[in-house]
Specification:
The complex is a heterodimer of chains A (423) and B (412). Chain A folds into two domains: 116 residues, no CATH class; 280 residues, ABC transporter involved in vitamin B12 uptake, BtuC (Orthogonal Bundle). Chain A is mostly helical and 423 residues long. Chain A has 16 helices and five strands. Chain A is globular and about 65 Å long. Helix content of chain A is 67%, strand content 4%. Chain A starts with 19 loop residues before the first helix and ends in a 20-residue tail after the last helix. The radius of gyration of chain B is 24 Å and the shape is globular. Chain B starts with 11 loop residues before the first helix and ends in a 6-residue tail after the last helix. Chains A and B meet through helix 7, helix 14 and helix 16 of A and helix 7, helix 8, helix 13, helix 16 and helix 17 of B.
Amino acid sequence: MSTVVTPGLFSQVDVSVSKKTPYLMAAFAVFVLVAFGFAGKTEIVAFQWSKEDDLIHLPDFLVASNVVGLVLGTVLVAIAVFSFVLAQRTRVTPLWLTLVFGLLAVVALLAWLAAGNTLPFAFILGNAVVLAVPLALGAMGGIMSERVGVVNIAIEGQLLTGAFLAAVVGSLTDNLYLGLIVAMIGAALLSMVLAVFSIQYLVDQIIVGVVLNVLVLGITNFLYAQWLSNDGQNSNFPGTFPIIPIPGLSAIPVIGPALFEARITTYLAYVIIPVLWFILFKTRLGLRARSVGEHPLAADTVGINVAVTRFWWVAIGGLVAGLGGAALTIGAVGAFGRNMSGGQGFIALAVVILGRWHPFSAAAAALLFGFSIVLRIWANQVSPGIPTDFITIVPYVVTLIAVVGFVGRVRAPAATGKPYIKG
Amino acid sequence: MSDGTETPVVGRGAAVIREIMSGGAARALLSVVAGFVIGAIFMVFSSEEFLAAAQYLTSRPADALGAAWTAIAEGYSALFRGSIYNYTAASFEASIRPMTETLRFAGPLIASGLGVALAFRVGLFNIGASGQLLFGALWATWISTRVELPWGVHLVVAVLVAILGAAAYGAVVGFLKARTGAHEVIVTIMLNYIAAGILTFFFRTPELLREVDGGGTPKSDAPAESAQLPLLLGPEFTLHAGFILAIVGVVVYWWLMERSTIGFRFRMVGHNADAARTAGINVERTFVLAMAVSGAFVGLAAANQALGVRAGLTPDIDGTIGFDAITVALLGSSTAPGVLLAGLLFGAFKAGAPQMQVIGLSPEITGVVQGFIVLFIAAPPLVRAIFRLPPPQKTTVIADWWQKLTTKGDPK
């Protein structure tokens, strides 16, 4: 995070650091230690690092479930203590440490769930990545829009537009790349509607966003029921992009097959996320964009055209979100289904916030949601007794906790949601 | 946007007409008309006869026009037959049944629309109607399937619990916003998913709410007969007392917002929270209260959904009501009569679905119409541009006249 500021620049920055994060971490750590460690199951877990056909085959790692709980629980307690010490010295717990904490807690949960079973680590990670791609791309679109000061509730509609157009155009033209491009353009046009209404006509951005979602859902539902479901062979049978292993990288044990045997949509996400970070934080273009989102009046004063900047960032954000929508259909399952995005746009919105409007953190948050979806499916198969509904809601609870400010300070760009009227 | 364009001095009658045409009601009406027109275009282009005739459009344009007209006429008359009066039905009961179905569907839409509308008036955006509805329905189902109470008392308790459950869930949003400044839109979206997870867990777990002899799918028992909302028009019709609840809600909403001190405080915070704070209003407490009351109205919809059925409930009992409620509140411009009318319109859309299915038109067309209506509503400049309406008026001819009529003694 680039929120480290020179003291004195923002004199109102709180001197005392809130101890909410350490306390919350301590509570989680103790829970893991007790529930998965001391009271954990004694059955053996087989960590399966690689699939049968991987180039480098690692042997399974066998360990008792409660041992994993004890070890990871102790590490988590140590991190919580460290975070407490940082807070005493008026330093904020770094974001990466919070992420490591979360990841270790997830592994402990996995080991507890898989007691007496194998834990197909590579399989879970690979699926989590595939599921995270639309979320991450939707979130990148959201970040681009919110960084310049326009709230984008319409990510859901953009994903749905992208998913629909990619499948239909890809199917009708037999050209998936054309489908991909049309999907991106379609979502960008939707984004422009949002931009024009909120920048030019000063209509409430959240209302326009919600309305666009309702509109796209209505239109795609109708076209799906009236047209695609009758003529599916012709208009809704696009197939998917081929899986391309990247030579060399895909041979890395554990993460290679999960990350580098993927479709082009996934690789595009790998490119877009760092590029967006670079543009936002390392270029003049990004500085201008952020200034428009933080203090439009100041930006205007130094000669930046606020309205034009906002328009193009929101529009190009739509392109990226449209790519995310295409990842739902031709980047994963192929055919379009009714209400295909099914609320993933709202999850992407949560990802934006959980990732504190930062591309890398948002990508990590998207991965967290991807994990939770895989876990729900996988946990149901491994141990049917456990309440999967609670695994489902964990990411939402985490987001809620982040939003209400227990985990660090989550702060939106200052001018987000506020129209700028040139005086 | 129209600063500086002073209204020219015109006659009183012309001023009245200008004021009506630039007001919210006219815009709402024109938005509905525009929505129906776009829906008609969708119908035409999904009609196979039209597409066939369009192949030889230049040689025989009348065919295409005829096919287009047939598609529109058939589509909207099916909607009419399904939602208002079925003139082809054999019996009187069957011919007026569509109307009662419209009222049944409108009940939860009106109630939840009131909830969202109230939040709008306080300057809050309640996207959480779905979560509040689920949470209210969860506890109402508990009362209706797991608790035995005497006839009469059972229903009253179940309805009250639905209202209280939804209100409590709404209050959480207000509390988090007031305490931490978290934006209510994000909080409500997250709480929607959390409520859905909790409800599914309850409906899945045999010790909690799962059907007594049910299988693996999450489903509850049917509400006990003593806790069901009674049918209003006998066993021939499915219309139940939930609609009465919604109407009571409309009246309460009107009184609360237009006549009560609390409503005044709500509107004041909605207009300008800083000014309200300066005037001595506890804005934070108002947020909590407003979200609780907003949730309470959604609770009426929860009672509709949980107690208005004769069969077991599944976790999707909220349907699309959460988002429909937003469109209802927007179209009804957050006023009691507006929400009532908007709820009836969208209720008619839902009721008309089966008849449209019969003629081979996907009932999802109403979703298109609904989407465009709210788009036009949400973007006043767009509607004004399409229909060349005058800009918002600064004159208050009608308001003055109304005040003279309604105020005894001296106006101001």
